[in-house]
Amino acid sequence: MCGIVGYVGEREALPIILKALKRIEYRGYDSCGVLVQNQGEMMGHKEVGAIDCLVSSLPESGYEGKIAIGHSRWATHGAPTVTNAHPHLDCNGEIAVVHNGIIENYQSIKEGVLCDCIFKSETDTEVIPHLINICLKRKLSPTELHSGELNALQVKEAVKEALSYLRGSYAILVAVKGFDGLVAARKESPLILGVGDREFFLASDVPAVLDQTNRIIFLEEEDLVVVEKDSIYIENGGSEVKREESLIEWTIEDAEKGGYEHFMLKEIHEEPKAIRDTLMGYLTEGRINLGLDFIVDAESILLVACGTSYYAALCGKYIIENLAKIPVRIEVASEFNYSDFVLDGSKVVAMAITQSGETADTLTALKKAKGYGCKTVAITNVLGSSATRLADETIYSRAGPEIGVAATKSFITQLIIFYLLGLFLSKMPASVFAEHINELKRMPQIAQRVLDEVNIQKHARYLSKYEHTFFVGRGVNLPISLEGALKLKEISYIHAEGYAAGELKHGPFALLTEDTPVIAILTRDDIYEKTLGNVKEIKARGSPVIAIAEEGDEEVEKYVDDVIRVPRTSALFSPIPNTVALHLLAYWTAKERGCEIDKPRNLAKSVTVE
Ligand code: G6P
User: Fold this and answer.
1) Ligand 1 pocket check for 38: Cβ under 6 Å
2) Ligand 1: which of 583, 605, 608 to mutate, judged by most atoms within 8 Å of the beta carbon?
3) Is residue 59 left, alpha or beta, with left meaning phi > 0 and alpha meaning psi from -120 to 50?
4) Which atom from ligand 1 is nearest to the alpha carbon of 307?
5) Over the stretch 199-251, which tens digit does the pLDDT of each residue have?
6) How far is the CA of 350 from the centre of ligand 1 (A)?
7) pLDDT per position as a tens digit, 2-38
8) Catalytic residue among 46, 177, 229, 605, which?
């Protein structure tokens, strides 16, 4: 997903911009570019591929300057080419723009107000510098236009007018020749402002600037910002506004690999800590405080999400319905958004589950739920993200920064939030409640035991030789089998399908051969015998079966080829050890196949387009 960065200050800007772009590589991108204002000259450079290619192809001189912008692009309009890479410039090469988002009406702008302009790229973004150019010309007298110097007010007003033409989403940074600062604006795309000592950093993401400053201003929807090295001005709806700084406590080490070969492995190993941190945030002396008392009145809950978060939500449905006996409906956000949904918002609390808080489909779903009159809650891992601004209330999972594209610790903390929610909403007797709380409090330790005791690498070596697999489970572990399959396919590129164990016989049986291993979650729950029956049916079709089963379950060994042993928990909490085991299985299988684990092909950590 596109990343934008900008710098205004007293230091050389280019090294800062390049480092910031490296820090947000995890967002996923296919091309990149920078632009430095060197003594009034606009010096741009772009490349297809990695930031390292950009760095090595940069000329040794000519890029000195104290103001710069940079961009990593994940292609949406136009192929990943140098021409389509950002920054984009107006026809005179004097106004440069980097953009994250999508301008929906760019074609009609090209054919309308910009019909005389010549465009170089296929991008939607390129209309923005051209628009700013015509707006600037409209505002300046011929003397001002040729003076070579522009002030903040002139540039801000031109950008503001240009933005009024745009429909869609954007976070933009604008550099203008003759103006010693940057203008930035956001609408439905994230943008933060890092505050330093006589310097400012603009970025789509906090980790981009965290090595420079931990003083962060989370810009609000439709903020327009002007930064010069000594001043910052923020406007919203035509008037100046003040935005508070947040002090970010994540350290740079938090965002680095900490000795692990990949971020993903580090993040799986952080799952026990992430669970503990999330529990600590909401559990004091056996009582749950989510700060959301209004949800007690909900007659039902609607969960909307995408990707891994959708599987967490599906697991959440089983958990909440089991513990709280409240009906939960779950929808894939991209489907919900365009469905003829029947909903009485006064009775339903809608929850958006999104680790990044920026997934476009999920944000649209949140708006749609609000439109029905629902009270809304964001469950997210990212402080100040767009979902938190849109929703009435937020529950933060406390997984810490997650860099690997494949969600791991953020997923497991989402599950923890659902246990907390289910228990918070439950009306069970105090003694049963206390038993559940005690079990929940064991989860960090249970997750740690999976990491310490399970020898997953032998199973990974075995699995890595196959091209097709199935993951099956039932009940609360059906979503975990879907998550196990998703994780495996994302990072190892093995075709993996998650299925309800009882469903395999209704079609997929036709695919079962000795070359399609099946990973079966065989937790000792109320339907253990039925799931075991499904496994026997699978075995009879010749597929090798690896079970994920609890320690002490001797019976399972009679029916399967191998067993991944996980610590015993009550059945409702078994998704926690099972998830850790499946995350490890995906990681080690991908490692066995030599895959680029942290940045799987074609995927992005945060998908901010619909
Ligand atoms: C992308 C990521 C997935 C993630 C999904 C939803 O596709 O690659 O890992 O599950 O977005 O992201 P969210 O931030 O809303 O949880």
Assistant:
1) no
2) 605
3) beta
4) 10
5) 999 999 888 999 999 999 999 999 999 999 999 999 999 999 999 999 988 77
6) 19
7) 899 999 999 999 999 999 999 888 666 789 999 999 8
8) 605
Ligand 1 center to 585 CA (angstroms): 20
For tokens 């003829």, name the residue: 340
pLDDT value at position 252? 67
Q: Two tokens at 226?
A: 């002007």
Q: Are 240 and 223 in contact (CB under 8 A)?
A: no
CA atoms within 13 A on the CB side of 496: 29
Any atom of ligand 1 within 6 Å of the Cβ of 428: no
Q: What is the pLDDT of residue 22?
A: 93
Which pLDDT score, from 0 to 100, does residue 188 have? 82
Q: How many CB atoms neighbour CB 141 within 10 A? A: 8
| 605 is a catalytic site residue | yes
| pLDDT bucket at 253, cuts 50 / 70 / 90 | low
- Residues 185 and 223: their CA atoms lie apart, in Å, by 6
Could you give the CA distance from residue 532 to residue 546 in angstroms, rounded to a whole number? 12
Catalytic annotation present for 2: yes
Tally the residues of the chain. Answer: 610
Alpha helices in 241-359 (DSSP H): 263-269, 271-282, 307-324, 333-336
For tokens 């010096």, what's the residue? 43
